[in-house]
């Protein structure tokens, strides 16, 4: 934790401080930002306040008085409810507006970690509670050079496995054969293991109508055969098996056989067009030094797909932040599920993955976009047409 950097950012955001709170380790963001690893269990409430000016200070329960010992600043102990309330008031003395892991109307669930009652308690001291969303993005979502390189290397390995997975499907479906979705998933998992890649679950392997379920995953007992004449969607995400590694996350679609039906090719072209509109919106803003926010990227993809008559079939946000978890804590490309007004900041990465989901098949095209200091770029291979399997 760099207190000076946090305080500089607080002043930039016109905040009097950042109030961290936890009970039973419910807020992982607090522990990561503070670089806090308690020596024992956390069964009592603690508060830690970093003011925009001056020394940080904490409030801890006497039963667990050492919880914040690794952090700088004076710690006050409490036991009773009244002592806690009085101590919180003293902790926030002379503050008017402080950040917490709170999001108005839960607009950004990834940041909304503090319960409503605690927000009420802080407001009762006369302090306004603001969202820490931009602060979290700055201190949690930004990558360093090592993280970027881990992403690029994961991308090279995942793209290789993706090509092999389509080839494996082709080997089984030629000459009237078939292969189960689950068998393809297990092939990918085994290849990830061989490539020293980690994934928390998945991948998604969906044939025809199953490709229209954005979060479909086959299993040993829930799996459909893939045959000639079928559309197949592969959604794959993984990271290197090393500390600090970040994810690479892609979706490609292919058709088993010769030329794909006209409707499938048309839908792919519409999805590709929406994807490319969103990519261009980001690239042009970053190269021009112009501020751009998550909802604007969603608008770019969604407006194009709507203009082609498929807007009602694009049922999710355009993209999500990517970090050490598949869905990170930075700005999402979203003006559908939420209105994400967070700025896209340098050294962050996110997916752009519009999709159109019809009754008989669905198509999604997902790439990862990394924003540097002066440019934005897609970090891996880009699908330009349906894969002919």
Question: How does this model look, in words?
Answer:
The protein is α+β, with helices and mostly antiparallel strands. It has two domains: 3-140, Creatine Amidinohydrolase, Chain A, domain 1 (3-Layer(aba) Sandwich), CATH 3.40.350; 142-388, Alpha-Beta Complex (Creatine Amidinohydrolase), CATH 3.90.230.10. It contains nine helices and 19 strands. The chain has helices spanning 3-12, 28-34, 81-91, 116-123, 133-141, 145-173, 181-194, 262-287, 294-307; strands at residues 17-22, 46-51, 57-61, 74-78, 97-100, 128-131, 178-180, 197-198, 204-207, 225-227, 231-240, 248-255, 321-322, 348-352, 355-357, 362-364, 367-371, 376-378, 387-388. It has a six-stranded mixed β-sheet, sandwiched between helices. Strands 8, 9, 11, 12 and 19 form a five-stranded mixed β-sheet that branches. Strand 2 and strand 3 form a beta hairpin. Helix 6 crosses helix 7 and helix 8 (262-287) runs antiparallel to helix 9. The longest helix has 29 residues, at 145-173.
Structural class by secondary-structure content: alpha+beta
Number of helices: 9
Instruction: Work out the count of structural domains.
Output: 2
CATH class of the largest domain: Alpha Beta
Radius of gyration: 24 Å
Secondary-structure element sequence? Answer: HEHEEEHEHEHHEHEEEEEHHEEEEEEE
CATH topology of the largest domain: Creatine Amidinohydrolase
Number of strands: 19
Features of this protein?
389 residues; alpha+beta; 2 domains
């Amino acid at each position: 934790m760099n207190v000076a950097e946090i305080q500089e950012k607080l002043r930039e955001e016109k905040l009097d401080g950042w109030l961290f709170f936890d009970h039973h380790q419910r807020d992982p963001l607090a522990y990561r930002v503070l670089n806090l690893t308690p020596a024992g269990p956390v069964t009592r409430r603690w508060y830690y306040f970093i003011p925009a000016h001056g020394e940080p200070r904490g409030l801890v329960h006497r039963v667990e008085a050492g919880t914040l010992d690794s952090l700088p600043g004076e710690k006050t102990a409490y036991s009773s409810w009244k002592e806690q309330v009085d101590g919180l008031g003293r902790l926030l003395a002379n503050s008017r507006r402080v950040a917490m892991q709170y999001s108005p109307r839960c607009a950004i669930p990834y940041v909304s970690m503090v319960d409503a009652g605690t927000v009420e308690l802080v407001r009762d001291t006369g302090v306004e509670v603001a969202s820490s969303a931009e602060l979290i993005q700055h201190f949690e979502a930004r990558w360093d050079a090592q993280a970027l390189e881990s992403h690029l290397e994961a991308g090279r390995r995942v793209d290789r496995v993706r090509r092999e997975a389509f080839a494996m499907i082709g080997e089984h479906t030629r000459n009237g054969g078939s292969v189960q979705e689950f068998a393809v998933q297990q092939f990918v998992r085994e290849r990830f293991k061989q490539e020293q890649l980690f994934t928390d679950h998945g991948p998604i392997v969906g044939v025809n109508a199953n490709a229209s379920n954005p979060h479909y995953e086959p299993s040993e007992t829930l799996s459909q055969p893939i045959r000639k004449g079928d559309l197949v969607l592969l959604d794959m995400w993984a990271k290197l098996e090393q500390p600090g590694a970040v994810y690479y996350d892609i979706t490609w679609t292919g058709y088993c056989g010769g030329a794909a039906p006209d409707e499938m090719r048309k839908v792919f072209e519409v999805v590709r067009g929406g994807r490319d509109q969103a990519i261009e919106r980001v690239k042009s803003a970053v190269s021009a030094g112009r501020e751009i926010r998550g909802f604007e990227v969603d608008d770019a993809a969604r407006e194009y797909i709507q203009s082609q008559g498929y807007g009602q079939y694009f049922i999710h946000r355009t993209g999500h932040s990517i970090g050490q978890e598949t869905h990170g804590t930075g700005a999402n490309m979203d003006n559908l599920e939420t209105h994400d007004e967070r700025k896209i900041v340098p050294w962050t990465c996110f997916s752009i993955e519009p999709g159109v989901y019809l009754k008989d098949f669905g198509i999604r095209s997902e790439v990862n976009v990394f924003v540097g200091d002066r440019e934005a770029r897609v970090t891996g291979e880009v699908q330009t047409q349906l894969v002919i399997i």
